[in-house]
Specification:
Largest sheet: 2 strands, antiparallel
Order of helices and strands: HHEE
Number of helices: 2
Helix content: 40-55%
Radius of gyration: 20 Å
Shape: rod-shaped
Number of domains: 1
Structural class: mainly alpha
Mean pLDDT: 76
Number of strands: 2
Low-confidence stretches: none
Strand content: 5-15%
Strand order of the largest sheet: 1-2
Distance between the termini: 19 Å
């Protein structure tokens, strides 16, 4: 996979995970503040699981290996990751 594709996938997965987590947090606040059950059945975030996708994208990025472009060291690899 290309570096730009891997980075783009990580950004999208991170953003999606943040949206879902934020929506769930808002639901909890509304439920607690108004003491009502907020029906999310028809929400786009209903039963969304983004954790696995985000973890997978992080692992792909963390295990990314790129060849060094110096002809004298063409057998060397660098590893990106956090």
């Amino acid at each position: 996979m290309k570096l730009d594709t891997i980075v783009a996938n990580l950004i999208v997965a991170s953003r999606n995970d943040g949206y879902v987590e934020g929506y769930c947090e808002c639901k909890r606040h509304v439920t607690e503040a108004l003491n009502v059950d907020w029906n999310t059945q028809y929400s786009g975030m209903h039963v969304q699981t983004t954790d696995d996708e985000f973890v997978s994208a992080q692992e792909t990025y963390n295990n990314l290996r790129l060849p060094i472009m110096d002809p004298e060291h063409c057998n060397m690899m660098i590893t990106l990751g956090v």
